[in-house]
Design a protein that fits this description.
heterodimer, A: mainly alpha, 2 helices, 0% strand, rod-shaped, B: mainly alpha
Chain lengths: 119, 313
Amino acid sequence: MPANNLTATMQANTRELVKTAREQVGQLRDLPDLNPKQQDAVDTAYSLLVDLEDMLTQRELKSQIQALRAKAGELSNIITSMRKSIDELKRAAQAVDTAAKAVGALAEILAKASSAGIL
Amino acid sequence: MRKDTLRSVVGASILAGCVLGGGCAVLTKSQVQEVKAFARAAENYGTLPGQPIRVYASVDRVDRVMIVSARNFSEPDAREKGWEELQKANASSSAFEAIATQTDRALDILNTYAELLITLTSDQFTDSLETGAKALGTSLDQAITRYNEGVRQPKGASPLGLIGGTVAAVVRGGVGVGIRHRQARYLKAYVTAAQPVMGDLTADVRTLMTNEVLTAVNELESRFKDDFKTAAGRRQTMSLDTLESVADAQEQIRRARELCHSAATAAGKFSAAHARLAQDLSHRKTLESHIAEIEALADEIKQAKKLRSELGK
């Protein structure tokens, strides 16, 4: 089993254990004969387990998103090449426009030279 | 007339030879349609998977506030702990929000990729070429007219004929075919290179949505229900505002569950549209695809001829 899969499995197992513990402590919260001190202790334990469970959920989600980002990075290399190709196509299309401007300038020169009697 | 017929036959032969020889495949209308279908599947997809995580962040906060509300504040310690637990509720909610944003960012690249495919296969390059070729033809005719007026006419020489329209048509046709050919080549190269990445990425999104986020949302709902029961049992009564918050959270959970399913389904459609595009570009050429390419080439030549007749007026 690859290391990252092993870590993912361990994370999932740990979260499952915490969830079970939180559910069991949750059942104690509903006991009717707890005094205020006991109730406070059970509530505190329950809150800590909820916090821990959320942290483990966040960690699992982050691992998954890390994997997504790595794959998205591969696509980003392709995107960089795509942008270059699009620029090349733009340049190829605009080259004719540049030539047109040069010929346009030539027409202007000919007109000026003709009116000045140079030609 | 004979000259025109001969020119058409030669043109058609060059087109057919060019395509059937396989040397200059050009972008066809069906490929452009496939790219558009893929882009439709990609539209706004990037923000879908982050949304259920955002809902989790919101409901998680309501649940943790509910847990604090069930405390017996007659115990002095409980007040301090309650304060800290509310702070942790806010921190946890922010952490889930941040994860949702990271998910959106990671997947935003899919939109960028689809947009670039659309640009790569668009008419904007040949449209720009058309404008340039038209300007070139006009400028050339102006220069020849000036030359005739300034040099040939005073010398009594016959004026040079105007060739702007023909030159523009040749440039439009030749460079246009070249651009279409390069577009087809780039499209095939990029879609082929992206196909394995796209397959893996969308499979990961499906797993994330159905295995991780959906499970987490379902577990949160179960926890929320238990915490509601505990708080209601201890307090015996609940304000209308609290009950409304609970009802809103229930509704959000229902929507988050739907979003998980639709994000996973959309990932599947997205992947299928890309695979179809990649397959369309890579399969062995059939007579139909040769005909489509010849038609695409003929369109380019038609545009060139149109330009020549426009400038010749």
